[in-house]
């Protein structure tokens, strides 16, 4: 076999198939499941890889006619403080709700808004080293106020803030906005505006949309 053929073979970097030889669930919680996969590594070794399955989520950059962004200040228990964030929520309402419909629902539930124009802003794989959690961010424009939603638990304490885009970028760079989804959404809007970029339609494919947990538990 020539050196060129060997370099292009299945053992070359980028050519290995990481087959799953076995799998087991070790924890099944309210919004995540932890499974352990036995994965075939290059060279023949089988290694354990922990995977946190997640429903997946959506988030919305909703801008008014002045270009301001609707944000919420919400308590986040794992870090013990309130964060300034974009409206967002889980894809946990069942198999009949699309990501766009989930985003529209979350916008109404969290900030009492609807929007006439929707586009895909950016897709995120939030921490692919250990979880399948992924999120689709939408840009929503032509916003209007709808009836006040009933809110519970942490959401009952949320405060809505309208933030100018330049101010939001400054807060990201100053470390005042640290939620990863919000950072990505704010900087993506700023970059798209500066470049005059054409955003994707809401029907654009989402290859990394999580499905494992939703298929196991189709309703919350």
From TrEMBL:
Limits of the Nudix hydrolase domain: 53-185
A GO molecular-function annotation = hydrolase activity
Q: Which PROSITE patterns match?
A: NUDIX
Please give one Pfam family short name: NUDIX
Output the Gene Ontology cellular-component terms: cytosol
Keywords, A to Z, come to: Hydrolase
- Reading the lineage from the top rank, the first entry is Bacteria
Choose any GO biological process term that the UniProt entry carries and state it: nucleoside phosphate metabolic process
Q: Which PANTHER family match?
A: ADP-RIBOSE PYROPHOSPHATASE, UDP/ADP-SUGAR PYROPHOSPHATASE
Protein name (record): NUDIX hydrolase
Source organism: Gordonia aquimaris
């Amino acid at each position: 076999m020539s050196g060129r053929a060997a370099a292009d073979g299945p053992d070359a970097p980028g050519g290995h198939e990481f087959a799953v030889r076995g799998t087991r669930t070790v924890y099944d919680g309210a919004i995540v499941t932890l499974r352990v996969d036995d994965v075939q590594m290059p060279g023949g070794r089988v290694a354990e890889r922990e995977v946190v399955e997640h429903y997946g989520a959506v988030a919305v950059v909703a801008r008014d006619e002045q270009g301001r962004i609707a944000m919420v200040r919400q308590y986040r228990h794992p870090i013990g403080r309130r964060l300034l964030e974009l409206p967002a929520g889980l894809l946990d309402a069942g198999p009949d709700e699309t990501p766009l419909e989930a985003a529209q629902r979350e916008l109404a539930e969290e900030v009492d808004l609807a929007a006439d124009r929707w586009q895909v802003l950016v897709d995120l794989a939030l921490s692919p080293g250990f979880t399948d959690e992924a999120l689709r961010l939408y840009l929503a424009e032509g916003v209007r106020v709808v009836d006040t939603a009933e809110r519970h638990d942490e959401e009952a304490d949320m405060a809505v803030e309208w933030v100018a885009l330049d101010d939001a970028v400054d807060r990201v760079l100053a470390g005042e906005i640290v939620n990863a989804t919000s950072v990505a959404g704010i900087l993506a809007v700023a970059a798209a505006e500066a470049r005059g970029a054409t955003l994707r339609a809401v029907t654009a494919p989402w290859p990394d949309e999580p499905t494992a947990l939703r298929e196991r538990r189709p309703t919350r």
